[in-house]
Structure formats: structure tokens, C-alpha cells
Amino acid sequence: MRPDRILIVEDEAIVAMDLRLHLQALGYEPVGTAANATEALALAVRTHPDLALMDVSLEEGEDGIEAAGRLQALGVPVVFLTAYADEATLERAKRSRPYGYLVKPFEERALHSTIEMALFRHRMERELQARESRFRALIENTQDLVVILDAEGRLRYASPSALRMLGYRTGDHPSFSAFALVHPEDQPAAAHLLEHLHGHPQEARTLEIRARHRHRGWRILELTAQNALEVPGVEGILIHARDITDQRQNELERRAMEAKLQQAQKLESLGVLAGGIAHDFNNLLMGIMGQVGLAMMEVPEDHPLNRRLRQVETAAQRAADLTRQLLAYSGRGRFLVEPLALSRLVEEMGELLATVISKKALIEYHFAPDLPAIEGDATQIRQVLMNLITNASDALGDHPGRIRITTGILHCEPETPALAGTVPAGEAVFLEVADTGAGMEEATLQRIFDPFFTTKFTGRGLGLAAVLGIVRGHHGAIQVHSRLGEGTSFRLLFPPAQREQIQELPVRTGSQPYFGHGTILVVDDEEAVRNVAAHSLERSGFTVRTARDGQEGLTRYQAEAGEIRMLVLDLTMPEMSGEEVLAALRSGGGPGAKVPILISSGYSTAHLAPEFQRHGQVAFLQKPYGPKDLLRKVRECLGE
């Protein structure tokens, strides 16, 4: 146990030295000596003494009595040492509430007893203050209600928390009957409870009732009432209650959130399934479209077989459109990400939108000025707008009505509601399409984003499913408001763009057949894709090497790096993906660091765009593609 630490404030050096010796002899630890108030305060702040021995008369600056007040404000108790014992000095000293007063000269025993009593008193005061603080905090900050009722049910005591819980200020003492606070429907149960307790001393019963808040309507209380009429000091019905209104509300919200989460999980699972099907289906379509394209190159245009081949190609293109909608639903359909001005994009589509709506519908535009850009794929956003406009027109049917397209900014909070997607944090850019049509009932509203769900006589039911996928792929959310007979509004929320400009590879086009030279390595785990790419490139004069997976492709390139001009690289392959091959080539030095690479995938590469930008000359070709698409991209990559 450490000795008590004493600060000496004395301007007489000899007296201060004598005091130090006495204190050491008594087992105390002097922490320093100050000759004036300024030094005393500085030492107290630095050393945190347990007590200060203060000379009343100090020659420089403040006297000891003035300094004592400032020391005790720091929590340091003060004992005065003085040669003055006149009434005026004593009166001044008492105002600073010292812990002792010794008149010089004094004996060591008197010094010791005075210090000990001062330290004891200070410790007791601090302990009492701590207990009072704890008790005050417990009573004043408890969330529970504590009241005592008399035998007739009138309030005899209400804790501060009870007053706050019911909307009264601390100090108010309502004298009305407690039954006046109880909801009329709950009063019979409350009366029965009190009647029962009157005949059963010491028994406790629980009850849930609604009580009137002074300003906020009815609150739900869960209470325990006990008969303490015969308990001395209480002599009443003791009631302990807790406000569970928020808890009940949270339970309702939790159930709603669980339902929403289940819906989101269902949509997510369907999205993963749809994306996987679309990816694999794109690889199958590659073989069909590629072989048809090669066959059409070999058959004269006026040959009857060419017409049949074009029909096959058209059917394959329609299948490819369907896979693009599935990819959009899965959120993996963004291809070219760039800053977009929503208002300008909608404005540019004005004439096109007018052609797809009912003749009796009127489109209104409301564009917010100075709207921030969003990062997105323009083609996908146009698809979203077309789907929403088409649905709005269908909702109007043959009746006259309005379709309103609005853009603006919405400040989003964590609790901002959305039917689907993730609400952006902070400011969001929104696009809203609202109609004055028939509206939807709640059961229909909960299913509108399910793939293949439709209320139309014709249609695949992928329009709104694709809208949801596109919005999720853009890290946005969808708010839907609809009532039968009052119309429907779809509001899409997007995060603002974080970058000003995205670099794009130059696009070169040409109408003449393209013939190249050199060796191109095609890396793809689908044999049909490899065959189509190889035959297409060989017809244009290239020598083609193929690899069945990423590791084989990397090994083959390293062996023939001096001859290979370019790679056509599948993004999704087992064991070693195209992204890993790309990273290995770019980080390995040598020719691989600069060789042109064309990434191909049944998915989009929007999420990898920043990586591709860092890897130099990299282009992207969406599956399924035909020979002409492949040759056009190869020509762009080689700069020919």
C-alpha cells in the first residue's frame, strides 16, 4: 500500500523543509514544495497529491485561501497552516471549506492527527458521492416504471422514470386515479388484478396493459403488481412496469424484415440459377451461331440454303436475347460502364418512347437540374426504361391516362424502404416512372419481380425481373408504390458516379473483308467455342493455337511467346480462370506484359473493368458471338 502523498505550499523555505522532514518521519510522501499559488496548481496537476498543506499567507500572487479553492476544485483537500488565528482570517478560511486548520507553531502529533482526519473525511466524502451518484443514476436513468398505489388505486409515489415514461416532468405529482391512465378496454383486467391482490397479501401478479402517455397516445406496459399494503414504509400496491411498445413494434418490423429477407433470398437464388443457365446456354449458342456464321460465309447469298441459315441465325439471336435478359435478372449483364446523365438519356429516348405507349397516354417529363451522373451501362438503363414505360402503358389499357417520368436526388437513410435491391447510402440519384393506371393489389405487388410471373396474356414475365437484375447490378434499389385504381410508380435509386471519365478502347470498323497474319492463341474450356473461333480466324489468314484451360493456355503461350500476336481468352474456366491467366501474363514481364488480349465470357465484366484498365490493352467480347463479331474485335485489338 503506497503512502499518502502530500503537497507542501509554503513560501518560507526553512518552514517548508521542516514540514518535509516531519511528513517523512510520519510515513507520508511529500510530492513537492510550492512557494506560491501558481506553482501549487502546476504541481497538483502534475503529481495528483492526496492532500495539500497550505500556508494562508503567501507573498506572491494569490494568498493561500484563494489558492485553496482552486486546488479543491481539482479534487485536492486542503489543510491550512497559519500563524494567524484572528476572526477575519478564520471566516475567510471557512468559506473555502478546508479539511483542517493548524495554527503555527504546532506539534508533530497535532499535524499527524489533523492530516489523518482530513484524509479520512475526504475518502468518506468521495465514497458517499460515488454512492449517491450510483443511486441517482440508477433511479433517474432506469427504463422501468416504479409506482405505489394506495388501496383505492390513487398514485402515492412515482419514480422519475415513471414520470418520464408517461410524459410528465420530474417534480410533477399527478393526483388522479391510476385507472384514468389505463385504456378503457384494459380497465376491467386492471380492476380485477387489484381486487385479487387486496385479498392476497404479498402476492405478485403480471399483466400487459395500455397506458395513456401525456403526449404520445397509448403505450404498451408489461407490469408486475405486488400487494405491499402491510409492508412498513410502502403500505400500498407496488407496481414495477416496463414500456414494451417499441419491442412490440420491433417484433412487427422484424417479421416484415424476415419476410422481405426471404423474398430477397428467393430472388438471389433464382438470380444465381438464371445467371448460371444463361452462361452455359451462351456457350451452347456459341456453337450454333458460330457454325451458322461460318456456313453462311461459304454459301452464296442467292443460294436457297442461305435463307434457311439466316432463319437459324435469327432463332439463335432470339435465344441470345433471352439469355441477356436472364443475365440482366442475375445482375451480371453490365457490359460498358461509364458516367451517365439520366435526364439526358431519357430525353434522347423521347421519340422512341412515344412509339411504344398507348395512343391515349400522355408522357410528362420532370427533370431535376444539375443532376449528378451515375455509373452504368447505357444499353441496360435504356432496357429498364423501355420495360417500365411498356408496363405503364399496359396498365392504362384503352383508357386515357398519364405517364410521368421524373429524375431527381433523394437523401437515403438506413431505414429508407425499398421493395428490392440495396438502398444507396446518403444521396441517391433516382429515376421514377409513374402511371395513372389500374394499380396492383398487395399479392401481385409481392410477386412482380419473380421471373416468369406475368399478369399479361402474352409475354415471358422477364421484363421486371430483368429490371431488378439490372438495378442490382448497378448497386441500386427499387421502390414501388401501387394501389388498385390509383396507379403505380416505380422509383429506381442509383449511387452517384465516383469517377468523371472511363477510358474506352478505340473502335475501328471497315466494310471490306478482313485478312490478317500471324498466330492467335484461343483459350476456352468449351470445344465448340474453340472450333468456331479457330475456323473463323483461320479463314481470315491467321494461324491458330488452342488450349482447353487456363493452365494449358499459359504454358503454351510461354512456349511460343515470340510467335503469338494475340490471345482470345475465356474468362470463366475451371482450375485457372482467364483473370488469373491475364494477371500472370501481365506480371511476368517479357512479351506477355504487352500482348493484346481479348476477354470472352457468357457473363459481363463490369465488376472487373478497373482490373482490366490496369492490365493495359484488354478488350471484351460477349458470348455468344459470330465470326464477324470475333474478327471485328480482333482487328480492333491489333490496331489494323
CATH class of the largest domain: Alpha Beta
If helices are DSSP runs of H or I spanning 4 or more residues, what is the number of helices? 19
Structural class comes to: alpha/beta
Question: How is the biggest beta sheet arranged?
Answer: 6 strands, mixed
Largest sheet, order of strands side by side? Answer: 12-14-16-18-17-15
Number of domains: 4
Q: How does the SSE layout of this entry go?
A:
Layout: E1 5-9, H1 13-25, E2 29-34, H2 37-47, E3 51-55, H3 64-73, E4 78-82, H4 87-95, E5 100-103, H5 108-141, E6 144-149, E7 155-158, H6 160-165, H7 187-198, E8 204-213, E9 217-228, E10 236-243, H8 245-298, H9 304-330, E11 338-340, H10 342-348, H11 350-356, E12 361-366, E13 374-376, H12 378-396, E14 401-412, E15 420-421, E16 426-435, H13 442-445, H14 463-473, E17 477-483, E18 487-494, E19 519-523, H15 527-539, E20 543-547, H16 550-559, E21 564-570, H17 578-587, E22 597-601, H18 609-614, E23 618-622, H19 627-638
Parallel strand pairs: 1-2, 1-3, 3-4, 4-5, 12-14, 19-20, 19-21, 21-22, 22-23
Antiparallel strand pairs: 6-7, 6-10, 8-9, 9-10, 11-13, 14-16, 15-17, 16-18, 17-18
Helix pairs in contact: 2-3, 8-9, 8-15, 9-14, 12-14, 15-19, 16-17
